[in-house]
Every structure is written in C-alpha cells, then in structure tokens.
Amino acid sequence: MFTTILMFMLSYLIGSLVPGFWVGKIFYNKDIRDEGSGNIGTTNSFRVLGVKAGVTVLVLDLLKGTAAGLLPLLFHSNINPMLVGIGAIFGHTFSVWIGFKGGKAVATSAGVLLAYNPVFFLIIVMIFIAMLAISSMVSLSSMVSFSCAIIISLYYHDLILTIVAISLTIFVFYRHRSNISRIKNGTESTIPFGWYYNHKKSAH
Fold first, then answer.
1. pLDDT attached to residue 195
2. Residue 107 contacts residue 65 (beta carbons within 8 Å)
3. CA angle 193, 197, 203 (to 5 degrees)
4. How much helix, strand and coil, in percent to the nearest 5, is found in the chain?
C-alpha cells in the first residue's frame, strides 16, 4: 500500500510540472496564462510562443505522462500503469506550482497511454492527426480521439483500459466545455492548416 501511495504522489508531482509556463517565462519573458486562451498546454504554447516552444511543450507534457506510467516498472509493482498515470493527469490539471490550476491534460493523458500500450497510443495519434487535418481544431480532434479510444479499448478486452478511457474522455469533454460552445457558435480557434482552415480562407 505504501508503494502504491508513493507512486501516485510521485506521479502527481511529475504531472504538476509546467513546461509551458516555465518555457514562456524563462525563454520568452511571457506568462502564457495572460495571453491567448490562457492555457498552459501545447496549443496555447504554439499560439503565444511559436512552433519551437510549442513542440518542446508538447514533447515534455507527453513525457510527463509516460514517466508517470513507467513508475510501476521502476518500483517493480504489479499495479496497472494507467491507474498510476491518473496522478500525472491530475497534476497537470491542478498543478501545485501555479495555484492548483493547469491545462487540459490531453498530451499528458496520451503519454500515459504510450507507457501502457504503444500500439494503442499510435492508433489514437493517427486518429488525432487525421481529424486535425480535416477540422483544423485541436480541441475537436482531442475530443474525437478520446471518444474513439473508448471504442478501440473494447477490442483489447482490457477492462481497466476501457474504464480509464471512458473516465478520461468524460474529463477531456468537461475541460473542453468552453471549446464546445465555441465550436457550436463557429468561433473556435483553428490552426493555420487543414481542410476547414483552407475552406474558411477561400470563402473570404
């Protein structure tokens, strides 16, 4: 029991690291919480700090989840990595470093999936990329990808994976509720590529 609690605490602390906030402050003298969407995650890092910073934040947020998911291996524990990885997701969303606020945990959740099942992770990433190429919206692509994760998890006959996939999907939709409103109103931010972006651009 002590080992399980220790792993969950370490997972939370790993997840609570805020590369988006730190990269902005240290290298760009910007607080990304005050610009763009105010989010500390990948999308706002791209929007406010640029491509190089955005890619850096994406990789680091992803690796947070992967590192947390690998803790059972490090501690020689039989506990499911997905369960330990939930600590990192909470850490990213409610970071101790910035007043228990944070991002939407999409990249960190994906990192946990990478540690648990790399093939499953790659399938979800391909769905995300395909959806992004069509919709030009990171938020919509994230929600669709996690929804598909539920369906795909059933193929693996892995009860824990399915339960976690359902829980994460609900969590991701909840964290994106303002994005959902903007998508309905046609005011959601888009990235500068993809079918929807080009369609809107050609229509003006």
1. 93
2. yes
3. 140
4. 75, 0, 25
Terminal-residue alpha carbon distance, the chain: 61
Residue 34 identity? D
Residue 101 pairs in a beta bridge with 95
By the 8 A CB rule, do 181 and 173 touch? no
Q: Which residue, among 164, 170, 179, 149, has the nearest Cα to 80 in the 3D structure?
A: 164
Helix (H) or strand (E) holding 77: none
| Contacts for 24 with CB less than 8 Å, ≥ 6 apart | 30, 31, 32, 45, 48, 49, 53
SS3 assignment, position 188: coil
Query: What is the identity of the amino acid at 101?
Result: K
Express each pLDDT in 143-158 by its tens digit: 999 999 999 999 988 8
Q: What is the pTM of this model?
A: 0.90
Per-block mean pLDDT, blocks of 10 residues, the chain (204 long): 93 96 94 88 87 92 96 94 94 94 92 94 95 93 95 91 92 92 91 85 74
